[in-house]
Every structure is written in C-alpha cells, then in structure tokens.
Amino acid sequence: MERESKQGASPFRIWLLPFTLLLGASFAVFALSFLLDVHDEANPSAVLGLLLNPNPSSALGAISNAAEVVAAVLGIAITVVAIVVELASNRYTHRITELFVAEPINFAVMGFFVVTALQCLAVSVLFDMGDGATVGFVPIVGSIVSMVMLGLSLVILLPYFAFVFSFLNPIEIVDRIRQHTLDVIGSRRASWTEERKQREAVRGIEQLADVALNAMEHKDKGVSMASADALRTLLLDYQKVRGALPERWFRVDGELAHNADFVSMSPAVLDSVTERRYWLEMKILRQYQTLYSEALNRMRDMNYLIAINTRLIAETALERGNRPLLDLSVKFFNTYLRATINAKDVRTAYNVLNQYRLLAEAALKFDNGRQAIELARFFKYYGGVSFTQKLPFILETAAYDLCALNELAYETDSPAARELLQIFLQVDRESESEEQESSLRGVRKAQVKLATFYLMKNEEDLAREVFNDMSSERPERLASIRNELLAIRSSEFWEISDRGVNFDYLPPKRKRRMLEFFGWFGDRLPPVPERISGEILDHSQTIPPSSAVTELTPDQQRLLATVGIGADSDDHGSRPN
User: Fold this and answer.
1) What's the whole-model pTM score?
2) Mean pLDDT on 70-95
3) Residue 431 neighbours by CB under 8 Å, 6+ apart
4) Among 177, 244, 245, which residue's Cα sits nearest to residue 206?
5) Long-range Cβ pairs for the range 276-280 (8 Å, 24+)
6) Average of pLDDT values for 369-396?
7) Are 403 and 446 a contacting pair, CB within 8 Å?
8) Which pLDDT tens digit goes with each residue over 279-305?
9) CA distances from 236 to 200, 297, 322, 363, 366 (A)
10) Which residues of 195-204 are buried (b: 16+ CB within 10 A; e: fewer)?
C-alpha cells in the first residue's frame, strides 16, 4: 500500500482514485449515450468506426477547438494555483513559493497542458481537405492522440488541484523544509560547499521559526506547534550525521558570524561555540527562545511544548554523553525561567518547572547525580528570584519539585541524595508580606512531606534533619501547616492542570507519620482544633488504633482513629509526576 503522509493523504487518494473515477465516469456517460444513439442503426459497428476514422471536417473542427479548451484549462489552473500559493506564502513563509516551483509534479502537469495545446495546433495545421471532391491528408493518428491528451488534461485538473492543496498544507511544508535542511547538511555533493551548507541550514531553521511565529499571529496553534516539533526533530536527527561532517562545518566565521543570532556575541563566545562544535544546536535553541518569549502570556501551550522539547534534547544529550549539548540545553531552560519570571507568567512557570524536574530526575541516573545537584541549585536560585519578584507560588512549586526529586534520589539510592536534601532545606527564607508568608508555609509543607517520606522508610535521622531545620519556626506557623495538611482529603487538584496533583495531599499512612513528626515539637504546638477534626471526620474509615499508634500522645491517637489513619491503613497516594 502507498505510504500515507502525516495528514492521511496518499498519492493513491490524491491522484489515482479521483483520476480513475473521472475517467470511468466519462467512459460510462459516453458509452450510455452512444448506445442510445445507435440502437436503431442497422450497422452500429460502422458508426463505432468513426472513432478511428472520423469525418475529416468534424475532426478538424474538434482539433481546432481543442487547443482553445486546453489553453483555457491551463489559464484556470495557473490562476487558481497562483492565488493559493500567494495566500499561503503571505500567511506562513515565502519559502512556500520556492518549494512549489521546485516540485517536479507542478512542472509535469503544466508542461502536459502546454504540450497538449501545441499538439492540437500542430495537428490542425496538417489537415488538407483537398478540392472538395477528394481529401488531401487527414492526420488520423495525430487527431486521436490530440483528443486523448485533451481528455487527460481535463480529467487531471481536479486531482491536480487536490495535490496543490495537499502540498500547501502548512504542516507538510514544515516537514519539507525540515527534511530539505537535513538533506543539505548531510549532502556530499561537490557543489555543496561547507559555507553554502551553513547558509542553507541557517535559512531552513529560520524559516521553520518564521512559520511558527506567523502561525502564532494567526492563532494556528497546530501549525506553530508542528514547527516547534520540527526544530527538535531536526536537531536530534542532526546528531546522527554531525560526526561525519568536516571541521570546517563547525567554524563560526564569515557570513555565519554575522547572522542575527551570532552577530552580537563577543569573539570569545564565538570561539567557544566553534570549540564546542554546537553552533547549529545554539541556532535552533535561539529560535526556541524567541518563540518562547513571544508565547508568554499569549499561547502557553507553545511554552509548554518548548519546555518539553528542550527536556527531550537534554535527555538525549545525557544518554549520549554529549556534555556541551546538555549544558547548552540547561542554559536555555534557565533562560526560559528568567523570561517567565520577568513576564510574571506564573502558570507557565508551574509547567516549565515540571519539565525541569523531569530532566533532573533523568539526570540522577548519570554521573552519580552531579548534574541533578546542579539543577537543584537552579531550582533554589530561581525560586528565590521569583520570591523576590513577588511571585511566591513559583517558589512553592520549586519546593515541591525538589521534594519529589529528593524522594526519587532516596528511592534509587543516588549518591546525590544527601546533598539534594541540604539544598532543599535551604530553599525557605524569611517572608516580607502576607502573600509571601503563605508561600513560605508552602515550602515548609513540602519539607514536612519529605520528612514523612523518610519516616515511612524508617529513616528517622534524615527526618530529624528536616526537624532541626524547622525547629526555630513560629509555633503558630507550624500548627497551621499541620492542620492544613490534615484537612486535605483528595490527591487530585480541583482544577485542570498538566500535573493533575494536589501538592498538599498526604495519604493516610503519611498523615500518621506527619503527626509523629509534629509530636517532636512537644508542647510548643497547640492541639489540633476540633473544627479540623470535624472537617475530616469519616466514620466509615474509623479503625482501632494499632500498637504502633500507641507511641503517640492520647490526643494524637484519638485524632488518628477518627480520620481513619491507622498503622496498617493502605497508602493510596502517589508521588507527583
């Protein structure tokens, strides 16, 4: 079966199927009308013979008109195609015109129309009707060929329009630009010098970004996101061929050094890019930076996709041991976060941090988790920056992500676990406003969650480190944290979000451990208010306290029994994704 394109259209559906239907319908209509005309004729075969030996006068008239018909069809085709191509070029990228003109099928179809018109004209000139009594010369074969070509010209018109519309599909154009750029980079033809290949590669990358920008202007989310994906695919496919490229390809000088993305860089930076051999990767990620900035507070899905793609690029670099590409990807991730904080786009930061955490989790498996430690420091830094910028929820999100990273580091027995814990405990800082106070309590909640995790793993020493870090906290803040965590009953957040989790949720077993943790503060904390017990009271879950619960105070035992948190209760919670 023919290979189908991304849009589900195949050459069979575009060309063969409509061509067969139109040609078949034409034959069927002619056959039916012919049978109706000759059913009373004494010799129908003689009438049928007119197809091969037509009347010279009739044949001349038909051939003469055929040239005009083909010329009219050609004019219609050129008009429709020119309008559609121009509209698509203005909407997305001028490269569409170039690709369309270079497509061999367009030349073949238009050329067939021209040849048909010339054939009809030439054959009509050859007719010699004689002196009336005799016929001089009738080009029978030429007439038949001309009529067949005329029929094909008419039948092929609709399939050709279907091809044009399929060709101009913007997502198909994006794929063609990407594939052409990759083919040029890997080309070994002598005509493709390294300078020319650099120029064509830059051109292809910039045009993919232009398509994305123009699509964003027209709210074409699918096209803009397809262009962003094409940039990632191009970068990853390039990694497979870059090893065979000559040293000259990686040098940033001449025309390439004057490109908009490199012209402002100092000579030292350009030398560094050349040394690390990643100018094309930087070029692509610079396009991501531009798209990301344009999408902030406008098209957040594009921000999320760029973060996802940057993470996938970084993870590929991790797996292949490509340290320069990994460092570059991390720098751009940090640039995204800085731009997001400056734009005060909290929702985007929430989702970008999710992708950044996934990258840190992947990094735990490599190089003893050193890269994960570096990323954790960036979490702490940008959390602090957002806190200073009066965006405390970003700090809270970073804290919960660090909590999840610490849990995974312990689960995988990572050598980075201890240092990650120390970084996590340094995230909180004194608040300056009521809003920031709320956020700082969110950081403490994340630290309490980690302490309960350690207690579940019977790692009291690690939980004590969290306790020691919180020992100077005000009792009223600690009490409010405890009460709020006790009151959360659902693991899912009550709004639609990419993460889909409730940061503050603790499953029953961990709530029991949480009360054990807060029990270490002794009489400094007031008892749990009765209204909290009333809010979370569920008699259907009440179970007798086990022997393990008797280690707690009587008040804590009664509270645990009323909310159904026993030592043997099931843990239905899940770690944030």
Assistant:
1) 0.77
2) 86
3) 392, 437, 439, 440
4) 177
5) 276/324, 277/242, 277/250, 277/324, 278/324, 278/325, 278/328, 279/250, 279/252, 280/185, 280/201, 280/205, 280/235, 280/238, 280/242
6) 92
7) yes
8) 999 999 999 999 999 999 999 999 999
9) 18, 29, 12, 19, 20
10) eebbbbbbeb
Helix (H, G, I), strand (E, B) or coil at 158: helix
More confidently predicted of 291 and 553: 291
CB burial readout 168-194, b (16+ within 10 A) else e: bbbbbbbbbbbebbbebbbeeeeeeee
Q: How far is CA 394 from CA 12, 64, 123, 422, 440, in A?
A: 53, 77, 79, 20, 11
Burial class (CB in 10 A: 0-12, 13-18, 19+), 69: middle
CB atoms within 10 A of CB 161: 17
DSSP code at position 133: S
* Amino acid identity at 448: V
C-alpha distances in Å from residue 77, one per residue of 13, 21, 158, 164: 20, 20, 10, 10
Longest dimension (CA), the chain: 130
Tokens of 177: 């630009």
> Nearest to residue 277, comparing CAs of 206, 328, 228?
328
Distance, in Å, from the CA atom of 148 to the CA atom of 142, rounded to the nearest integer, reads 10
Q: Is 543 helix (H, G, I), strand (E, B) or coil?
A: coil
Are 442 and 480 in contact by the 8 Å Cβ rule? The answer is no
pLDDT above 50 for 516: yes
Instruction: Categorise residue 219: left if φ over 0, alpha if ψ from -120 to 50, beta otherwise.
Output: left
Angle at 310 between CA 304 and CA 313, to 5 degrees: 145
What helix, strand, coil percent values describe the chain, rounded to 5? 75, 0, 25
DSSP bridge partners of 128: 137
Lowest mean pLDDT among 71-80, 255-264, 429-438, 524-533: 429-438
Phi-psi category of residue 450: left, alpha or beta, with phi > 0 → left and psi -120 to 50 → alpha: alpha
pLDDT in tens, 108-137: 888 888 888 888 888 877 776 666 555 567
Kindly tell me if the per-residue pLDDT of 530 is higher than 80.
Answer: no
Other C-beta atoms within 10 Å of 275: how many? 12
